[in-house]
Amino acid sequence: MPEISERIEWFIRVSIFRNPIIMKQLGIAIGIPFGVLILFLIISKAIYALVLIAVLFLFTYLFILVVWGGKYDVGFELDKTGIRNYTLKNQAKKNLIINTMAMVFGLLSGNPAVAGAGILSQSRQNILIKWSSIRKVKFYPKSQMVMIRAGFAENIAVFCTPANYSEVESYIRFRLIEREILFTSG
Q1: Which tens digit of pLDDT belongs to each residue from 80-129?
Q2: Which residues of 107-141 are buried (b: 16+ CB within 10 A; e: fewer)?
Q3: How confident is the model at residue 1 (pLDDT cuts 50, 70, 90)?
Q4: 152 by DSSP, 3-state: which?
Q5: Helix, strand, coil % (nearest 5) of the chain?
Q6: Are strands 136-140 and 126-130 parallel, antiparallel or unpaired?
Q7: What is the Cβ-side half-sphere exposure of residue 184, based on CA atoms within 13 angstroms?
Q8: What is the C-alpha radius of gyration for the chain, rounded to an integer number of angstroms?
Q9: Is 169 within 8 Å of 141 (Cβ atoms)?
Q10: pLDDT in tens, 10-47
Q11: What DSSP designation does 80 have?
Q12: 130-148, pLDDT tens digit by residue?
């Protein structure tokens, strides 16, 4: 059996608008509700509202490019406890400012959805998924990525470098096999 490290840690900068998995997730999270709204607006011929939505999407795209450079700076740690995904310090500072503003403006404007989005976003800056919580794993070797699914709202994408993908995949497989042996040996 090959030697398995006790711990693997790395940092990566992921393009938000060029990663197919991120774009798929954005498409689901934003595309479905806005798609229904846009369809309704097209049927009701509300051109002004459609233009406002298009402008909103454009400003959101530009905001992401200006504030974060269109990139997501993330770190990962895999050890005997689980998989930790965390936002790197420089980006975490920006996120804290944006998320706090969303909370404050949401509360001041009486919009609990905006305040809740700020709180939820801030709570996802550092996530640990324990091996025992993992329910489904999907490997994407061509994209050097692993999708981890655990409980409700406990899902992360593990973005790897071309150099460490094989090691990360082997490590995850080893820990999950080890877990199964521990569960069945009882």
Answers
A1: 999 999 999 988 888 888 889 988 988 989 888 888 888 888 887 889 99
A2: eeeeeeebbeebeeebeeeebebebeebeebebbe
A3: very low
A4: coil
A5: 55, 25, 20
A6: unpaired
A7: 6
A8: 20
A9: yes
A10: 999 999 998 888 888 888 888 888 889 999 999 998 99
A11: S
A12: 999 999 999 999 989 999 9
Tally of residues, the chain: 186
Please name the residues in contact with 26: beta carbons below 8 A apart, sequence gap of 6 or more: none
Q: What distance lies between CA 174 and its chain's CA centroid?
A: 24
The contacts of residue 53 (CB under 8 Å, 6+ apart) are: 34, 37, 38, 41
162 contacts 140 by C-beta, under 8 angstroms: no
HEC string of 12-63? EEEECCCCHHHHHHHHHHHHHHHHHHHHHHHHCCCHHHHHHHHHHHHHHHHH
